[in-house]
Amino acid sequence: MVRLTPVLIAAVAGGLIAAQAPMNARLRLVVGSPLLSATVSFVVGTVLLMGAVVAAGGAGGVTSLGGGPWWAYLGGACGAVMVTATLVAAPRIGVTTTFVAVIFGQAVVAAAIDRFGWMEMPVRALTPTRVAALALLAVALVLLLRE
Fold first, then answer.
1. Measured between alpha carbons, how far is 109 from 53 in angstroms, rounded to an integer?
2. Fewer Cβ close by (within 10 Å): the C or N end of the chain?
3. Residues with Cβ < 8 Å from 76, sequence gap 6 or more?
4. Are 37 and 27 in contact (CB under 8 A)?
5. Is the entire prediction scored with pTM above 0.70?
């Protein structure tokens, strides 16, 4: 059975990411640079996260930094590319098309991670249902691009 709470949390987070693209695109107009706009976005997020870590009493985990595999530290780089790409794409192709493209890319990479167990994730089969879901996302993207 699907647990509803993590699905709702993910859906809310997805909605916030969709709202983030036009916010950062507008900030880009204010500061005159997509990279500076993305940087400001990450600085604000970093300050909020640092406050949350301190409030939750989790600052002691700093002593464990450096103990993971090299690739475990690249999530922020992925986020930086994502934020910059969406703030550039959204004004050009629209927020809906941008995020269907983002979701398609995420789903394809996620399917590969599941299929091969990359990054220490459990292996999950690439079933016909999953392939059909990916194909439907591709169709949605093609339809949006035809507008």
1. 30
2. N
3. 42
4. yes
5. yes
First to last CA, the chain: 38
- How far is Cα 80 from Cα 42, in angstroms, rounded to an integer? 8
Distance of CA 44 to the CA centre of its chain: 17
- Are 87 and 104 members of one domain? no
Q: What is the pLDDT of residues 83-130, one digit of tens each?
A: 999 999 999 999 999 999 999 999 999 999 999 999 999 999 999 999
Q: Per the structure, how many domains does the chain have?
A: 2
- pLDDT tens digit string along 30-89? 999 999 999 999 999 999 999 999 999 988 888 888 899 999 999 999 999 999 999 999
| CA distance readout (Å), 17 to 90, 100, 136 | 12, 12, 22
Per the structure block, which two tokens stand in for 45? 């997020």
